[in-house]
Amino acid sequence: MILYQLSDGVRKSLRMRYEIYVCPLCADLGCGAITIDIKKDNDTVIWKDFGLEYSYTDEIKTIDLGPFVFDWNEYKNVLMSSLGLAGYKNPWD
Fold this sequence. Notes:
Layout: H1 2-6, E1 18-22, E2 33-41, E3 44-53, E4 60-62, E5 68-71, H2 72-82
Antiparallel strand pairs: 1-2, 2-3, 3-4, 3-5
């Protein structure tokens, strides 16, 4: 997903929401996830339309938060620095 965001522009033809928080135990959307819509506009990235989403319904419960605007170069640098950091750790260990 990081490399997708770093590609030239967020693809406008795809309706894709990004998961920014999922269940720390299983990452299953059945447990629910906080999702957002991300738009790239010239030199900025905009996080907007925050919502709570589940895999078993098309409904997205709106969360009154944002929008947040980031400078594209700073955003890109942070994403690049996070490549390879992801991993799984059981929260009860």
